[in-house]
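Dear colleague,

As promised, here are the two records you asked about, laid out in our usual form so they can be pasted straight into your sheet.

NAME FIELD: protein one
SEQUENCE, THEN STRUCTURE:
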Amino acid sequence: MIPERAHIELNARDREILRDIISTFILEGQPVSSRTVARHVRHGVSAATIRNVMADLEERGLLEQPHSSAGRVPSRAGYHLYIKSLMAARALSEDERERIDSDLQSGSAQPEKIVGLASQLLSGLSGQIGILVTPAIGDTLLRSIDFVPLSGRRLLCVVVSEAGFVENKLIEAEEELSREELIRISNYLTENCRGRTLPAIRERLLMAMSEERSQVDRLLARAISLAQRGLEPAAGPDVFVEGTTQLLARGELEDVTRVRRLLDTFADRQRLVGLLNLCLEGGGVRVVIGADSAVTSDLGFSLVARSYGTGDSTRGTLGVFGPSRMNYERMIPLVDYLGESLSRALEASANR
C-alpha cells in the first residue's frame, strides 16, 4: 500500500526536516514555510539551505506546494514515509487501555452491542469518524440454526455464527409444521452443519437433494427445503459509523461540496465496505491515504484500520476515518489496541 516513491533514501538532515514539516502541518493545519522550519534551531542550517531541501523533497514527491507563494504540505508518499520510518508511535496510556477493556468486556454479551460500543470508542478517543464493519453472516462459520413458528406457514429463521452474530430472516414453508418438527429440523441442521460456512452448507444440502428420492427421508427433505429458504445469501455485513457530526465542525470540511461527497460516501454502504475490506489482507494496522483508494482520494482523507475476529473465523474491520492531517502517532496504536480488545471481547462473548 505504500507507494514506491516513499522508499527514497534520505540523509539524516533531510529526514529530520521532512519529519519537522509533516509534524508541524499535522499540528497547525497550514502549509509550512522554510522560515517556520528554520526557527527550529536544532537543524543547524540556514533558511536558504532549508528552502533547497524542501524543493528537493517536493521534486522527490514527498511534499507538495498548494500555491506558488505558499509553504509545503505532505504528499501521500510523504505521509507514508513518515508513518513507516520517521514518526514515533505513542503507546496508549494505562488509563485508556483500561477504559477500552472495561467498556468492551464488561458490557452486554451480545456481539452487535459490543461492536457498537467499539465504534463509539473509536470516534470518542480519536476525534475522527469511527467505522466498524462486521463479518458478513454468509462468510462466517455456523454455530446454530433455529426455525421459530409464527403463523400458518410463516417462520423466523435464526442463524447464529460461531462469533455470536445473529441474522433473522422471515421465510415461508411449503407446508405447516409443528413446533416439535421444527425443533427436530433445527437440531438436525445444527448438528450436521455446525462449523461450516453458509455457502458450504447450501452446497452440501444441494448434493443431498440430488440423491434418489427414496434415499431422502421425510425429516431430511423438510430440513433441506427450509434451509434452502433460510440460508439464502444475506444482504451483507453491518456497518457502524460514529462521529460524523463532530467531524463536520472541523475546518477541513468548510467546503460544501466536500461535505456532500462525505455524506454520499456514508450513504453508499457497498463502497464503504470495499474500502474497509482493503485492510483485511495481511495483519496489523493498515493506512490508506489519498489516492491509495478512490474513496480517500475523493475526500482527501485517510483511513487507519485493522481486522478483528475470533479464532479462525472470518474477520471484520474497524478503523478511524478523517482528513489526512490526522495524528498518526496516536491513531495507529489506538486502532491496533481497540482491534485486539474487541477480538478478546467477542471471544469471551462467544464462549458464554
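NAME FIELD: protein two
SEQUENCE, THEN STRUCTURE:
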Amino acid sequence: MARILFLQPSLQPPGGGNGVVAWMLQALAGDYDVTLHTCTPFDPSKTDAFFGTELSHRRIEHRLVPTWWRAALEASPIPLHLLRDALLLRYARRLESSVDLIVSANNEWPLRGTGVSYVHYPSRARPRPDVDLRWYHRRGPLGLYYALSDRIADFECADVRRQILLANSDWTTERLRRLYGAKARTLHPPVAGAFAPLPWADREDTVVSIGRFTPEKAFESIVAIVEQLRRRGHLLRLTLVGAPGLPAYERRVRTLAADRPWIDIRCGLDRPALLELMSRCRYGIQAMVDEHFGMATAELLEAGCLTFVHRSGGQTEIVRNDDLGYADLAEGVARIERALVDPAHRERLLEHLATLRGRFSPARFCAEIRDVVAATLASGHFD
C-alpha cells in the first residue's frame, strides 16, 4: 500500500477550504497508508460533524508538526501564514524520501519531487487583493516579509510547474497559468449535506448571505442592496450567517443591523441548522469581488435559493447565467428586482439553477481525487 503524507496547517471547521481537506482525506484513507501532519490538533469527530465526512471510521495516522516554530508562530498577534507555510514546506521536503507521495490542499507546494497540490488561490500572487490587506501590511515591512518567507521556502517556480496542480475554479486555474506558466486541472470543491429544498411557495421572502466577518465578504453592500429593494416596496428580510473573522468588522456589521430590524445575524450554526436555514429562504446573495470559488454560493444553489453573485471570480462558474451576476449596487438591485416582479423570468432562473444541482457532489469529488492520486503514483515519479 502506497504511503501518502498529507500536510495541512489545519482542517478545523468551519471554512470551505478545510472542507476540501476533509473530503480529500475521505477519498484517500483506506486505499492508501495516510499520515496527516498538521500544526493544530485534529478531532475527526468534529470534522465529520461539520463537513459530513466519516474520518472517524478511517485509518489515518495523525502527527502534530514537531518543530519549535509552531509554538512561536501561534503566539504571534498576526497570522504570518506565508512564513508558516515556508517553514512547513521545508519540513515536508525532509520527509519526501520517506513516503510515496505528498498531498496538500494548502495552495501550491514547490516540492523537489512531484506532489499533488490543491490550490484555492496562488500564495505568491502579489500584490494581494486590497480586501486581503490588514493594518500590518505596510509596504516596507511587507516586502521584507515576502523576501524572508521566499528565502526560507527556497521557492522556485520550476518546482511549482513540476507539481500536479488542482484548482477550485477555472478562474484560479488561469491565475496559476499567468503566474507560473503552470497547467492546473479544475476540480470544484464538494458540497455535502442532506438538502431538502422547500417548494417556492412555502419559503420565506428572505435573502441569506454566508461568510466570515471579514471585509472581503462585503456584507455592507448586501445590506445596501436589500435596503434599496425595501424602499421600492419589496419587504424582504436579510439573514447574515457569520463565522468568526475580524472583530472590528463584525462590530461594524452588527451596528448596521442594530438600526434595521429586518436584518438577522446568525452565528455558530451547526451544519444541520445551516442547511435548514438555507432551504427555507428564497434568495441568496454573495457579494465578494473575485471570490476564488464560493462554497457558500454552491451551497445556496444546492439548497434551491435563487442566488445572485458579484460578476467576478469563480462564483460566476457556479451560477452560469449573466442575469444572476451584477457589477455594482445599481445593477444588483435591478437584477434582483426583475426576479421579484417578473414571475416568468424568475421561473426561468430557478429552472436553470435546478439543472446545475449535483455538480458538486462529494462522490464526484472523491472519485476524481482518487483518479488523480492513482495516476500520479503510476506515472513513475516515485519508483
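A couple of things worth noting about protein two: The CA atoms of residues 133 and 321 lie 31 Å apart. The chain has 15 helices and 13 strands.

Best,
R.
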